Amino acid sequence: MEPFLLCERRKKPRPRTVWLGHPEKREQRYPRNVINNQKYNFFTFLPGVLFNQFKYFFNLYFLLLACSQFVVEMRLGALYTYWVPLGFVLAVTVIREAAEEIRCYMRDKEVNSQIYSKLTARGGLSFSTARGSVPSCNQRVPADMIFLRTSEKNGSCFLRTDQLDGETDWKLRLPVSCTQRLPTASDLLQIRSYVYAEEPNIDIHNFVGTFTREDSDPPVNESLSIENTLWASTVIASGTVVGVVLYTGRELRSVMNTSNPRSKIGLFDLEVNCLTKILFGALVVVSLVMVALQHFAGRWYLQIIRFLLLFSNIIPISLRVNLDMGKIVYSWVIRRDSKIPGTVVRSSTIPEQLGRISYLLTDKTVTSPAFWTLTQNEMVFKRLHLGTVAYGLDSMDEVQSHIFSIYTQVKTHPLLPKNGQTSTHVKSSRVHEAVKAIALCHNVTPVYESNGVTDQAEAERHYEDSCRVYQASSPDEVALVQWTESVGLTLVGRDQSSVQLRSPGGHILNFTILQIFPFTYESKRMGIIVRDESTGEITFYMKGADVVMAGIVQYNDWLEEECGNMAREGLRVLVVAKKSLTEEQYQDFEARYVQAKLSVHDRSLKVATVIESLEMEMELLCLTGVEDQLQTDVRPTLETLRNAGIKVWMLTGDKLETATCTAKNAHLVTRTQDIHIFRLVTNRGEAHLELNAFRRKHDCALVISGDSLEVCLKYYEYEFMELACQCPAVVCCRCAPTQKAQIVRLLQERTGKLTCAVGDGGNDVSMIQEADCGVGVEGKEGKQASLAADFSITQFKHLGRLLMVHGRNSYKRSAALSQFVIHRSLCISTMQAVFSSVFYFASVPLYQGFLIIGYSTIYTMFPVFSLVLDKDVKSEVAMLYPELYKDLLKGRPLSYKTFLIWVLISIYQGSIIMYGALLLFESEFVHIVAISFTSLILTELLMVALTIQTWHWLMIVAELLSLSCYIASLVFLHEFIGECSFLHTDVYFIATLSFLWKVTVITLVSCLPLYVLKYLRRRFSPPSYSKLTS
Known about the structure:
By secondary structure, this protein is of the alpha+beta class. It is 45% helix and 17% strand. It contains 37 helices and 33 strands. Strands 14-33-32-31-15-27-30-29-28 form a 9-stranded mixed beta sheet, sandwiched between helices. A hairpin with a 2-residue loop joins β2 and β3 (123-127). Mean pLDDT is 81; it is low at 1-9, 124-132, 366-372, 410-421 and 976-985. InterPro entries: ATPase_P-typ_cyto_dom_N, ATPase_P-typ_TM_dom_sf, ATPase_P-typ_transduc_dom_A_sf, HAD-like_sf, HAD_sf, P-type_ATPase_IV, P-type_ATPase_N, P_typ_ATPase. It is a multi-pass membrane protein. Belongs to the cation transport ATPase (P-type) (TC 3.A.3) family. Type IV subfamily. It comes from Catharus ustulatus (Russet-backed thrush).
């Protein structure tokens, strides 16, 4: 019955009731609460790997070829000549995939083994996953839970949610009030209560549920919303919390917003697969021609099959082996690069993708304070503007002196300045009012911690500066409060109902919090009403974005201009205002406000209307400018990417203003480019009008919100993507994780270009897995993106070298390697075709047994594979001239043109070698095999030398080693090689002068013209990189 229920629940998630302390009453089974980034499990590994290998034409062809040798009429040689190479290819692939799966399993095991406390009737127990969890400060929430209790005195806690939704702002969460009032956490198990929750869904911003306590009189029934939730992948930023688990495993909000990992096949591999199909077509044509020239005599259909097997070398099985081993070498080189320390290659199958990226999609920020995607999330207060005067970093001491003068004029009462009317006093008063407003209008809470000298209780009692840290839902709010501390007005205490400030003289200023109006994305402002305990004055302070505050403050002629100036400097601008209220005004407002909050219908609208009645003719105090510090070398890295022809899109869960400021700060948008902010649209008509307005803009960066993006993609997907792809840069803010993956998918479908997604949090996993190449930035807190990515880096600036140097080298090396392996096989196939044509189109192999295997292994393998060490320019030059990367975006290193050139070279050399052997050795026919094979080996070694652009000492070793192996086999292994070998015929013939000069002539005729052509091309039509290396 349970499997049936499990299958039913998978099809249709249902609401649930969770009893506190009574797991036996649960109505449904919970999925296992584990993270799984593996592509296979124990049972699907081998079938899955083999399927992924044989679903492509290349490997399927060789499987059928090897199987055909079990039929006697089709057998052309020993079975090992077909099965050993195929088995080696499959073994390399299986071992590589197994190693990656084991590494992935170990990483997942590390995350899944984290220990949490579970609340039971016997006390706290430790479990790796728990039904009733007690996460503590800086610990990740293990499952989706309802917040029941906290150790914080103010009865709330902060969450860091950037791993879930990408927002850097901390979120305030409130426990269920009924359970928070209980004396101890163990009392949760003594009451009779339950939580009713909605069915699992992907919405991370909303939740509907109820909490019911049945054993109280009367029964308690509280509504639950998003404020009472603790979603998995968030981090507790303050205190210890107790929660009851609602959803686990695949039902987690974070998991439902993440796509399943997929096996990525690189574009380069698909192109090689396409070339093998062309070669197969050539193979069929050659075989049909041979049979046709025999006039389809006898059992012609068997002759066709024999010719297909005879010319099977046209499609080289060693190509797959060389490319796979090359990928391993590229991965090893990336990991060993000292200039990008900590870089990890988690998927060694797609390093060539790094060399052809056209679109880079990046998140804005990351959890850890040490490593970020673009920003460090470290805010610095840069500007205070009062209208007539502005203060920058170099003049903050003036602000400090003004604050000091205000609080020292009247020593008997620090709050009351002297009634002077001098200009200095007026300026000091204005500065003081602005600083006080900034120090009061926020949601920052000072927290005191033990520093080893002073314990926590003593530090909190004496407001020790060295023990104080600030907690807030936004880092720019912390920056503002830290700045007020630096100029003399320090926030030293706060709870739900009061705020304490300390003046420069050490006096404590007490304020009662009457009302708080938190910041929302819709309102773009926050407000607070406080009462000064010493004077009884009631003041309404408000701060917000200039677009909304312009209509709230009194008329002025400087707000718009100065906001524009500060925004152009890349600063986050906030407008600060105040309004003094009488006791009667406040009492009237409170009555209307309470009544509006009790309304059942249109509660939000009624509450907003009451608040707006206060937001009129407010006194403009100041503008503040805060800068989000970028990670090291972000600007040069983005500039390098732009010069390389890569378009950068920033996808973030942050607010529109934050994302826009970051884009300007990072120079994602150049100073000469305009920014078009796509206004909020909700229907088809609005989207049509806004798209038409955007169409008229040229060379303009686009900034759009996730809601508007969803509407545009619903009605005008093709038109929107066409316009967006023409933009030099695109910023998508308030993006849900699934939207990020959708954008990546649309870019791939609409443009056909390769995409690279860079992220750092759990909310970026879908995007990273969907992109052609996923890069995770690993921080101290967040490893989800890093674990799910193909490549993991520690800093954003490392991305430049990863693409410009390693990506470029990997692609060019694999292109050269693949074409040379094809050339090697086409040469011997051309010789076989000439041989069969001369001998009346007989299906007799020219070389058999050991020679066929030795040709593509010990005799030529090392020099050919040494091409993975080749490079056209030094890494410093590749970084200095990113335009070199742009040449690769057209796919010229491996194209139909270059493929055709190598085919013609192969036909020419194969024909010259074979016809030369027949012409020069007409009277010594038994030695044709020996002469042609020796010339073939020497030609391949010389062609490798012709292809190499920068010599490495290992290349020289490979050339000499291969030549030595061939000479040694001539001398010592002639009997072992067998009767099919030319060595068995006359081992002394190869030492004659006649043999040597004729082999030399054939080799020179096959290679010398190509050397001449290469010299002429470099002389009269040099490639772009040659100008930089000369």
